[in-house]
Amino acid sequence: MGSSANVDAGDRTTNCDGVSVDKGVDFANYFCTYGFLYHQKKMLCDRVRMDAYFNAIFDNKEHFHGKTVLDVGTGSGILAIWSAQAGAKKVYAVEATKMSEHARELVKANNLQDVVEVIEVDVIISEWMGYFLLRESMFDSVICARDRWLKPTGVMYPSHARMWVAPIRSGLGDKNMSDYESTMNDWHGFLDETKTYYGVDMSVLTKPFCEEQRKYYLQTSLWNNLHPHQIIGTPATIKEIDCLTVSINEILNVTANFSSWITVEKTRLCGFAGWFDVHFRGSRENPARHEIELTTAPSIDNGTHWGQQVFLLHPLRVSEGDNMIVSFSMNRSKENHRLMEVELGCEMKQSSGKMVGPITKKFYIE
Length: 366
What we know:
With 366 residues, the chain is of the alpha+beta class. The chain is 29% helix and 35% strand. The chain has helices at 23-34, 37-44, 47-58, 78-85, 99-109, 139-149, 172-198, 206-219, 249-252, and strands at 7-9, 12-14, 20-22, 68-72, 90-94, 121-125, 150-157, 160-168, 222-224, 236-242, 253-261, 267-282, 287-295, 308-318, 323-332, 340-349, 355-365.
């Protein structure tokens, strides 16, 4: 995977929000993860991910045979290797971390080594998707590569993406509240002991400690692989992306207002889940012979390493036919543009006509 597009200014880098970020911190946040083989292994063991890319390439060899391919953020080099095996004439694999050394050895071990200077390409293939699609802001790099190198008749793999949100039931909220309360009880015990044994009153720090722990336990979205039965209402598409035409400005903010009908009789609404899917369709002028979908939706037995992002609310009793009216807004964090901040609001019109809410809560995707 490659780094996102930034404007350099000495030791600072300006992200697409126009916010100045310490370059060392920004790079460290990114490179400390993707430069290690254990993280690459985690992605390489994700069968849903691997099968989707493998099938997309080898079921559509005509898009690769004799063509020039750019793999943005190649990581281990697996997509570049598959592209070459599918008949690509030239493959340019870009990787900014030390993983490039391993990718180079892997390419050599598979007798596919070649050094090419790329000016323009027929296909850009990249696995740029982060948690809830846009975390990490990786897609910026792909868009910049597309605008600089892809031919007007070129193809993006994947070519389209969608983001989804749906109401859920879950026991995670009860556990997190219990953990938060236990942490605060432990803090108060710590205050008593520190004052008794060391003569220092640290209670002035209770408010910031409480805010810190509330953010961690109650406002940070959770990674989870949900079961389809935990979805209790109609899912809504909150963002559709055409990878061939979308601009960076169009993915800086994701906002949506939608309705979701509760489809389960007498249950608890515990929050909302977000996931995404991507599609390998080729282009309008050059469509894929076999369209492939990679989905991270709740699954019975084929969950992905992306899972779903869970946004927990105080539980509400709901019943079939109730209508959830939801507002959703997601923006990049000003402190670290690879992370996301979400504001979610909802009110419920019960089947009896009674209105409940509105409820508004801020979350962090970290």
